Amino acid sequence: MIVFDLGCENNHRFEGWFSSSDDFEKQLDRKLISCPFCANGNVVRLPHASYIKSGARPPRAEPAEAKEPREGQQYANVGKEFLAKLVEHIIEHTEDVGAAFPEEARKIHYQETPERRIRGTASREEVEELVDEGIEVVPLAIPSYRTGKSH
Known about the structure:
This protein is α+β, with helices and mostly antiparallel strands. The protein has 2 domains: 2-45, no CATH class; 73-147, no CATH class. It has 5 helices and 7 strands, in the order ββαβββαβαβαα. The chain has helices at 21-29, 80-93, 101-109, 124-132, 144-147, and strands at residues 2-8, 13-18, 43-45, 73-74, 78-79, 95-98, 118-120. The strands form 3 sheets. It has a 3-stranded antiparallel β-sheet. Strands 4-5 form a two-stranded antiparallel sheet. A two-stranded parallel ribbon has the order 6-7. 5% of the residues are buried.
């Protein structure tokens, strides 16, 4: 897995996770990458700092209890408002295939059906199998009230 810093023409910065640099280029050429903030498809790779192992010990972090969480924060420094917008964007721009997600993801990956953006449900084991096959999936908890389901 490789992570790239990306940006759109509206100056939004975000990360993209890809199986390889070649995978990124293919998705970019096929216009499959868009900004999660504004859905702009004019995305470019931004320069980023490389990690260099120096052998020095990292500075000691403050104890967790000493840090006060900022209001509205959850999920590793991503606020509730951003997550709500992300969930809305995903719901609006994907097809819900429900429990057929693993099967539909495979059909798309193996080009047995036209490519489209889907979402649905899968067990942890099914997700691991998809990843082992080279199929990119991103687990995201969508509140049941947003999917119209009571569970």
